[in-house]
């Protein structure tokens, strides 16, 4: 085909500078190369494999079995990348956050191929395994979740702990880029998470710019509408003072005075701490979302959701927590008190303190 292009320009009656440039490009174009690929599962032992991919070989093979039909290429022409290699190189990106060229050197692929695979697989994970992230669905699951929270600090009827964390990103550019600059002066996606007592992510909202407040995200979320409809009965969430007090969302007191109030605050804070620990484990397991995500803004949400799904899969498979390899700055939104709380919610919280935590306080002193 290259000779035909050259012959076309040679036979033409007139030649322009543009024609000469095209001919020169065809003659000097680099030939396509196929690099050798290392069999990662066989090359690394179990310890080294886990350090590099944040999952054991058993869990990776389970993931491969779930996704291989969606990743398999129609033919093996041009050394098509196998589903297993697609999963491994994507996990490598999640585990490091490196630019695609680094992973390309490791897997013997061009960086553009790596980029396409990462973004395609992230979307496949979000579609095929989205059921891994879910709120308790039935009475048995709700009771189990409540019991696990109760064992932490005896706070009753808790179904989840809620908070937001910022996922750092590059400046997205455009007219709306400043919407992504948060109050700590870096660009981010403000991501809402509801976590259970085992650090599993029950609900995730990852589409809001960094300048949006936590309470705004919650007020616009589907999970709030479910609580408003009463889908979870008398169960409640635990949040910090950045959220408005509601019957189904308990926040800490500003200045506790009595012993029952202090006991309420202590129990609320200790129980709510699971969502902060979830952020730490999630970002330690997949440092790509703990450091700055260097991808296009349209590809950021699938990566955040995919890593959250894989985080839950790791918990379900009882994977170890990776050792922390670097210290990330505290990028969570600072607590901001909402001054306009409804009186009915305050009465409900006061009843909980006086009827439950006062009795609990008496039991602990006796």
From TrEMBL:
Arranged from A to Z, the UniProt key words for this protein are: Cytoplasm, Hydrolase, Metal-binding, Nuclease, Nucleus
Instruction: Name its species.
Output: Loxostege sticticalis (Beet webworm moth)
Q: Which InterPro entries match?
A: HARBI1-like, HARBI1_animal, HARBI1_dom
Task: Outline the extent of the DDE Tnp4 domain.
Answer: 162-312
Q: What does this protein do?
A: Transposase-derived protein that may have nuclease activity. Does not have transposase activity.
Q: What is the recorded name of this protein? A: Putative nuclease HARBI1
Q: Which domain of life is it from?
A: Eukaryota
Q: What subcellular compartments does it reside in?
A: Cytoplasm; Nucleus
Q: Which Pfam families has this protein been placed in?
A: DDE_Tnp_4
> Family assignment?
Belongs to the HARBI1 family.
Q: Which cofactor does it need?
A: a divalent metal cation
């Amino acid at each position: 085909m290259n000779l035909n292009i050259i012959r076309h320009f040679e036979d033409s009656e007139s030649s322009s500078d543009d024609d000469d440039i095209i001919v020169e490009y065809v003659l000097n174009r680099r030939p396509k190369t196929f690099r050798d690929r290392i069999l990662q599962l066989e090359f690394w032992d179990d310890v080294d494999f886990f350090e590099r991919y944040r999952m054991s070989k058993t869990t990776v093979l389970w993931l491969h079995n779930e996704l291989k039909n969606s990743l398999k290429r129609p033919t093996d022409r041009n050394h098509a990348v196998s589903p297993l290699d697609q999963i491994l190189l994507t996990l490598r990106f999640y585990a490091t956050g490196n630019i695609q060229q680094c992973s390309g050197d490791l897997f013997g692929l061009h960086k553009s191929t790596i980029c396409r695979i990462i973004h395609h697989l992230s979307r496949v994970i979000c579609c095929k395994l989205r059921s891994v992230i879910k709120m308790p669905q039935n009475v048995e699951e709700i009771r189990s979740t409540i019991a696990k929270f109760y064992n932490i600090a005896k706070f009753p009827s808790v179904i989840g702990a809620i908070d937001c964390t910022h996922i750092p990103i590059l400046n997205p550019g455009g007219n709306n880029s400043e919407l992504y600059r948060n109050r700590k002066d870096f660009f981010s996606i403000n991501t809402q998470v509801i976590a259970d007592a085992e650090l599993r992510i029950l609900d995730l909202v990852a589409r809001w710019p960094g300048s949006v407040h936590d309470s705004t995200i919650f007020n616009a979320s589907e999970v709030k509408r479910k609580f408003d409809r009463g889908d979870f009965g008398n169960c409640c969430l635990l949040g910090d003072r950045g959220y408005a007090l509601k019957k189904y969302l308990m926040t800490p007191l500003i200045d506790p005075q009595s012993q029952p109030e202090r006991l309420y605050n202590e129990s609320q804070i200790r129980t709510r701490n699971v969502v902060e620990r979830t952020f730490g484990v999630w970002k330690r397991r997949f440092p790509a979302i703990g450091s700055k995500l260097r991808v296009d803004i349209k590809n950021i949400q699938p990566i955040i959701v995919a890593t959250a799904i894989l985080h839950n899969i790791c918990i379900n498979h009882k994977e170890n927590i990776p050792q922390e390899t670097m210290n990330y700055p505290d990028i969570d939104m600072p607590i901001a008190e909402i001054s306009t709380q409804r009186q009915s919610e305050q009465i409900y919280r006061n009843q909980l303190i006086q009827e439950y935590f006062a009795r609990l306080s008496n039991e602990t002193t006796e």
